[in-house]
TrEMBL record:
Entries under PANTHER family matching the protein: CHITINASE, CHITINASE 12-RELATED
Gene Ontology biological process: carbohydrate metabolic process; chitin catabolic process
Stated name of the protein: GH18 domain-containing protein
InterPro entries the record matches: Chitinase_insertion_sf, GH, Glyco_hydro18_cat, Glycosyl_Hydrlase_18
Organismal lineage: Eukaryota, Metazoa, Spiralia, Lophotrochozoa, Mollusca
Pfam families with a match to the protein in the record: Glyco_hydro_18 (PF00704)
Amino acid sequence: MYLIPESRALFIQSCIDYLRRYDMNGISIRHSFHRKPFFKKYFPILLQDIMDAFQKESERTGRTRLLLYVFLYNYKENIDEDYDVPAIFRLADIVIVDTKYYSFFPLIGNWTHRHQSRLYGNTTDDELNMICKKLNDYQRLKGRKFRYPDNCPFYFYDNDRYLVYYDDAISLISKVRYAKEMGLAGVNIWDVSDDDMAGECGDGPFPLLHHVSQECRKP
């Protein structure tokens, strides 16, 4: 699809039809790692085609222009090989950065286990100098469990040793405040299925999502 203009046009028109049919405000494009040079070249072309089509559709119909969100991974080697970062930030309305790979990735030959969406990561400089106002921090309403069979001095489960990571209202509010302090565009919730949908924990339905929403609305 990347390489053929007619295929891109067909894909984009089907997106517009779907978004308008279900009264959605935009589309999120996730570009997975390919490590092929032509993907780095043609992905911005796809984004440009999408933005052009969204603008023309808005002018023709008088409706608010659809938004283009771009979802990026954060592993630097793949960013360098697959992403034309300046072009992506120039074309997208909102850029969403997936933070889960800050928590585990075979960076030094083995899998590093950390919180699934930790607030502070490595202290290395931001070599790509991304534009903060377009960034959305990617928050995950879910936990992660790792097993440490030999070298863990603590345990969360009898007869075995586990370290359990999770987010709660306090950590999520801290992350929203951090996003504001950093001048980010907002936070993105990828999965709400692990929130208390039925309100069984005494804080109403979707308490975590509610806390995030309330904190986002504060000045």
